[in-house]
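Postdoc handover notes: sequence design on the structure in folder B. Input tokens:
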């Protein structure tokens, strides 16, 4: 049914009931204006939205927030497509952020660019004319006289400013004595940040899906349920549009003026610089499905005129008084098909971005990771929040030196992740050619210097301290690489940085100082393979060769012990031993929960895992998971245990260590661990770059902190260069001493 026909029929209905019908030719309404609305238009929903104030954030930070809304919650294309639009917008030697914002919005579906508005939300105002309240929503409380019979709420020209939603709720609440049901929102739900580099499977810790989110009803604070008309202009703030659609679909208010576009109501204002964007992040629905794309105005609005003492244009007194006879509006016509889409689940690897390098790609990668960590990184309260400053720093680096190689992008991303202080914070450039070869040695930090533990090169010996690389002092080389190395503890930061020494692009001259203090310079040829393995290559078995036949040793390194069956066999062999040394100085290769359940002799809990949760763009929460565990037997071990840890004990090694130390089952010997536990989340970025970070917070069951603390040894032992030269294992020897003497 057309809007004109509904209007005529409703007027006839009022007349039959003896009510005073609207005079369609009176000051407020005209049929000729109504008929004009039905004309075809080339306008899009972007033409019907109203902006809000400027951002107080630095411009790149503000664009990061805007893109994060589109990427993680938007109704537009998938992540790769959205990211490539951003990269295109950020190309060039430097960036005009307003031009970039406009280019971004004009190219990306579901996003509109608008000029920011200087208008602020003013104080709420009420004008009463003949028992009709004319309400301009705003800040502060609303006071309505007791004789008010109806209300007109003016939504025209309200800015999308902080506090608008609350102001609107106060306005309708003051003229209602029953809660007003609001529409639900079809939104994207995130539990953590879905891994973007691998298909989702049943074991994925982080997922996203589309969900229907109910919204709380609007609270009634008034003494009566008064007739309400909403005055709507051609451009509405998203909050005002949402309010209008909620009330009209609930048949709680009439729309007087312009039609309301649902897409505006489903968007969020994200200011950037002098321009900002509306990002559509939901679809409004009720029990019958999506609401119409356009909610037509019930009545046109004409013949405005000033009221004494008020300079703004408001309806005439006669027009205001006619609102009292409105009654309840008819249901909104829903016969037209709904064409706007809802958000979709973000599936990994929908499209692979090309492996390219440019300044735009580098800038986009930095902006994207900033926005993702702002939403999903769980440890800012623990490590501090420096990502805004780091984004500005790294973007300035792109402006200073244009990016032409993927290695430049990689180092910029590594520099950004460093500020997270996260042992899972890494960046990668898959598909890049391998290096010419490797420095085939296993390095260990000794007194803040890298020392060779093992070597596959005849000219490089265990116990040698690396003092320089191609004439570059090792202290300076390390300082540069540490600036690109994310870690939660100093020991693991050193380990992450020193790994980059192992990749060689050609023959390299190393300065090496032997245990006698003599320095020599050796040109090393790149080797075809890296030297892999844990600190100790000792397998499971008796410690008889070290003079302790009554003690047993199990090395959980994935390099040595590869299956649960192998662990059970090693534990079976340890039955009857007076003490057991468990080595997690390198990552375990088996299920650490089974290990804990066979070593802990009572019921216990796994660490507490806390996932960041977003139900749409506005509702943030935390999902917690706790796992009670019971001991296993056949085999198990009930005797004294020493646990060996090192800075390379990270993630799964620490997960096991948390359970063993949390139940006071072990004495810990060695050096502090990496202080990083929890599943990694992985991002796919323009240029086919990858960035990783920890996607969940992990605490001890008593909720005490672990990140950045790690497993702190009860007995601290560090190797010396002489220990490494002779193959002596001081941590293991100290563990034996403790198990034999108790000290």
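Designed sequence:
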């Amino acid at each position: 049914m057309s809007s004109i026909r509904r209007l005529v029929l409703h007027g006839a209905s009022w007349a039959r009931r003896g009510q005073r019908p609207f005079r369609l030719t009176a000051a407020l309404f005209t049929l000729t204006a109504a008929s004009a609305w039905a004309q075809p238009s080339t306008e899009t929903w972007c033409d019907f939205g109203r902006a809000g104030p400027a951002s107080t954030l630095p411009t790149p930070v503000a664009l990061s927030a805007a893109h994060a809304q589109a990427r993680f919650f938007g109704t537009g294309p998938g992540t790769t497509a959205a990211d490539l639009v951003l990269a295109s917008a950020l190309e060039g030697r430097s960036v005009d952020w307003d031009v970039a914002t406009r280019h971004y919005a004009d190219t990306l579906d579901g996003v509109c660019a608008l000029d920011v508005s200087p208008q602020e939300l003013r104080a709420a105002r009420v004008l009463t004319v003949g028992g009709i309240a004319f309400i301009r929503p705003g800040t502060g409380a609303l006071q309505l006289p007791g004789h008010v019979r109806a209300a007109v709420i003016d939504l025209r020209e309200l800015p999308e400013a902080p506090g608008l939603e609350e102001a609107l709720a106060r306005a309708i609440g003051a003229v209602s004595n029953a809660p007003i049901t609001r529409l639900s929102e079809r939104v994207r739900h995130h539990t953590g940040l879905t891994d973007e580099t691998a298909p989702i499977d049943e074991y994925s810790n982080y997922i996203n899906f589309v969900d229907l989110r109910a919204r709380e009803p609007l609270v009634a604070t008034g003494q009566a349920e008064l007739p309400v008309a909403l005055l709507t202009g051609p451009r509405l703030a998203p909050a005002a549009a949402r309010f209008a659609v909620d009330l009209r679909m609930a048949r709680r208010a009439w729309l007087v003026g312009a039609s309301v576009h649902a897409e505006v109501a489903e968007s969020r204002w994200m200011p950037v610089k002098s321009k900002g964007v509306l990002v559509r992040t939901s679809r409004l629905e009720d029990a019958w499905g999506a609401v119409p794309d356009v909610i037509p105005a019930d009545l046109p609005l004409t013949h405005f005129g000033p009221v004494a003492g008020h300079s703004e244009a408001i309806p005439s007194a006669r027009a205001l008084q006619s609102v009292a006879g409105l009654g309840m509006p008819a249901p909104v016509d829903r016969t037209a098909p709904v064409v706007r889409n809802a958000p979709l689940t973000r599936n990994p690897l929908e499209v692979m971005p090309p492996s390219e390098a440019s300044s735009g790609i580098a800038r986009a990668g930095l902006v994207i990771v900033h926005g993702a960590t702002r939403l999903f990184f769980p440890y800012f309260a623990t490590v501090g929040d420096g990502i805004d400053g780091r984004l500005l720093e790294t973007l300035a680096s792109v402006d200073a030196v244009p990016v032409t190689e993927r290695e430049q992008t990689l180092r910029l991303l590594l520099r950004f992740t460093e500020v997270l202080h996260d042992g899972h914070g890494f960046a990668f450039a898959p598909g890049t050619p391998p290096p010419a070869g490797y420095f085939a040695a296993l390095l260990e930090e000794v007194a803040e210097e890298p020392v060779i533990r093992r070597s596959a090169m005849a000219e490089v010996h265990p116990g040698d301290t690396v003092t320089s690389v191609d004439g570059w002092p090792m202290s300076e080389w390390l300082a540069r690489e540490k600036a690109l190395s994310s870690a939660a503890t100093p020991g693991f930061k050193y380990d992450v940085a020193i790994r980059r020494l192992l990749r060689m692009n050609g023959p390299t001259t190393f300065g090496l100082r032997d245990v006698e203090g003599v320095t020599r310079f050796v040109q090393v040829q790149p080797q075809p393979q890296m030297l892999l393995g844990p600190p100790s290559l000792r397998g499971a078995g008796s410690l008889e060769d070290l003079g302790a036949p009554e003690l047993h040793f199990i090395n959980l390194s994935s390099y040595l012990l590869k299956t649960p069956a192998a662990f059970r066999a090693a534990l079976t062999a340890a039955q009857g031993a007076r003490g057991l040394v468990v080595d997690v100085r390198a990552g375990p290769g088996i299920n650490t929960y089974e290990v804990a359940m066979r070593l802990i002799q009572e019921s216990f809990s796994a660490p507490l895992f806390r996932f960041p949760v977003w139900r749409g763009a506005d509702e943030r929460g935390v999902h917690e998971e706790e796992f009670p565990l019971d001991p296993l037997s056949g085999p198990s071990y009930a005797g004294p245990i020493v646990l060996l840890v090192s800075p390379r004990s990270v993630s799964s090694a620490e997960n096991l260590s948390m359970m063993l130390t949390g139940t006071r089952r072990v004495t810990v010997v060695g050096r502090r661990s990496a202080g990083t536990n929890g599943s990694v989340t992985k991002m796919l970025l323009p240029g086919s770059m990858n960035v990783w970070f920890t996607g969940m917070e992990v605490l001890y069951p008593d909720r005490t902190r672990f990140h950045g603390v790690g497993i702190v040894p009860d007995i601290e032992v560090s190797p010396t260069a002489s220990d490494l030269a002779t193959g002596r294992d001081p941590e293991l020897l100290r563990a034996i001493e403790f198990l034999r003497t108790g000290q």
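Context for whoever picks this up: The chain is about 25% helix and 25% strand. Don't rerun without checking with the PI first.
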